[in-house]
Design a protein that fits this description.
Blueprint (H helix, E strand, L loop, with lengths): L10 H9 L5 H4 E2 L4 E2 L1 H6 L5 H9 L9 H9 L3 E2 L4 H6 L4 E2 L3 E6 L5 H11 L12 E6 L6 H22 L12 H4 L1 E5 L3 H17 L3 E7 L11 H22 L2 E6 L1 E6 L2 E6 L2 H7 L2 E7 L6 E8 L7 E7 L2 E4 L1
Parallel strand pairs: 5-9, 5-12, 6-7, 6-8, 8-9
Antiparallel strand pairs: 1-2, 3-4, 10-11, 12-13, 13-14, 14-15
Helix pairs in contact: 7-8, 10-11, 11-12
InterPro entries: DNA_recomb/repair_RecA-like, HR_Repair_Mediator, P-loop_NTPase, Rad51_C, RecA_ATP-bd
GO molecular function, one term: ATP-dependent DNA damage sensor activity
Subcellular location: Nucleus
């Protein structure tokens, strides 16, 4: 039997339980440790509700899973392609569903263009090995362009038509017109961090009621916090948003793409460019990539692995043309 004093509970809770004669965990819990006995609840009735909530979850330990089980789960995850074979290869076949991906880079590096391409790519039919879902685009810096999106949709639609003809697949799996893909993208314009928090809450409801949503883009995450001087408050809010998005991504198998800017950091009296939002943000994001515009050219860009436990350090070049994201 486990003494009640061994539980990670506040001293006042332990004292109340001991004073009521609850000496062991078995005295407090029933149903295999998943439910608090009514007698124990009565003893703690004048404490805040969250105390009982924490008490109920205190013995609910995560169950261990084998590495093989995790491996089998990961290889089942789907990806959203970019229409660039070199970029898809670097991303391990594309942007993975069920995960958060960070795209950092300076202005003009191609972050928004890549996100617009992903919003179209996520809707490509399954007969071509894609996801056939819908997208939500949260626009915090007015970088979203509907005419540019239509241009990418038209070119991507043409590529899909050609692929279906070559492979002799069912053409009816495609919409009648490329503009139908524009209907599959919800655009939400956000102007403050307060609106961003409210938007994340609203997106939860949208995803729960619409299983077609497979991509959420926030372009960019750091922009609503630019004028927030309190670094600690900013970090807490950003991490709160990321944790909500992580839960959303995992529970509903949705890819979340967070766009981030670069900032200057002084290290040993030397100015170094690195992704914004601080070290703690960087620790909780599983995959991070840095985009850049190559010197003396407006079309050629590069994307490099900045952080990943599963991808090797590498970089590739790609082009941004009127058709969207393409190989060099």
């Amino acid at each position: 039997m486990r003494p009640i004093q061994t539980l990670p509970l506040p001293g006042n809770v332990i004292s109340k339980l001991l004073g009521g004669g609850f000496l062991f965990c078995e005295d407090v819990f029933e149903d295999g440790g998943k439910k608090i006995r009514s007698e124990a609840k009565e003893r703690l009735h004048n404490l805040p509700t969250e105390v009982l909530t924490n008490l109920e979850s205190i013995l609910d330990c995560p169950k261990p899973r084998t590495a093989m089980h995790l491996y089998n789960e990961e290889i089942k995850l789907e990806q959203i392609v970019t229409f660039s074979q070199s970029v898809d290869k670097l991303l391990d076949e594309g942007i993975t569903l069920g995960e958060i991906t960070d795209l950092s880079g300076a202005s003009g590096s191609g972050k928004t263009q890549l996100c617009l391409q992903l919003c179209i790519s996520v809707q490509v039919p399954r007969i071509l090995g894609c996801v056939q879902g819908e997208a939500i685009y949260v626009d915090t810096n007015s970088g979203f362009s509907a005419p540019r999106l239509e241009e990418i949709a038209k070119a991507s639609y043409s590529k899909c038509v050609n692929a279906i003809r070559v492979q002799k697949l069912d053409m009816e799996q495609l919409p009648v017109d490329h503009r139908a893909w524009l209907e599959g993208i919800r655009h939400i314009e956000v102007q403050s961090w307060e609106q961003l928090l409210a938007t994340i809450y609203m997106i939860n409801g949208i995803v729960k009621s619409n299983s077609k949503v497979k991509l959420i883009v926030i372009d960019s995450l750091n922009f609503p916090f630019i004028n927030m001087e309190n670094t600690l408050s900013r970090t807490e809010l950003v991490c709160r948003i990321v944790k909500q998005l992580q839960t959303l991504a995992e529970n509903f198998n949705v890819a979340v793409v967070l766009v981030n800017q670069l900032t200057t950091r002084i290290v040993k009296q030397e100015a170094i460019l690195q992704p914004a939002l601080g070290d703690y943000y960087g620790h909780i994001i599983p995959k991070r990539f840095i985009l850049a515009c190559e010197a003396n050219t407006q079309q050629t860009h590069s994307i490099a692995v900045y952080k990943s436990s599963s991808l090797p350090t590498s970089s590739v070049e790609f082009m941004i043309t009127g058709n969207g994201i393409e190989d060099v």
